[in-house]
């Protein structure tokens, strides 16, 4: 069977979530470096796969799929040895889906906070946008306090892969800490310890993300 092709940029949190999931599912993947900033997602060939020109994009023997969270579910549904990472039980699956949608909102809030400075050269960070991120982190702290130790209950799921990529990136830009969120810190430590190939697919790529985004923020704030 041919490997699943993943068009991705390693530092990207959604791309990291897909690669981390694939490693933990045990599916063979061909990683295809794809840089949107160089126009790689705007070629006719890429647009046939994903008209939204976003990464990650998956090609599984001609099945094209964008949106990282959709890819996570597909990989488990098709290649998982069981359904533990994405339960078929309606109640458990609803909780995982809830956390995946929560993660989408959290990443959007985080991006809206750092992007104006990192990518548009603005000279100050929006405190209101920062507050929105902090509020969402507080909600995640509550999820872990009342329903943990994983974000969707008592065992690891694809929601953890998606959220760890997001939360580690938020902490990496140098504007947030886990001091007010002890359960988040415990969960992050748990992810590092228990997720297969965590360092390869999230730890080291997150360092690259930190250097790039955190560096741009520091540079533009100092100008």
UniProtKB/TrEMBL annotation:
Signal peptide: none annotated. Pfam families: GST_C_3, GST_N. GO terms for biological process: glutathione metabolic process. GO terms for molecular function: glutathione transferase activity. InterPro entries: Glutathione-S-Trfase_C-like (IPR010987), Glutathione-S-Trfase_C_sf (IPR036282), Glutathione_S-Trfase (IPR040079), Glutathione_S-Trfase_N (IPR004045), GST_C (IPR004046), Thioredoxin-like_sf (IPR036249). PROSITE patterns: GST_CTER, GST_NTER. Homodimer. This is Uncharacterized protein. The lineage of its organism: Eukaryota, Metazoa, Ecdysozoa, Arthropoda, Crustacea.
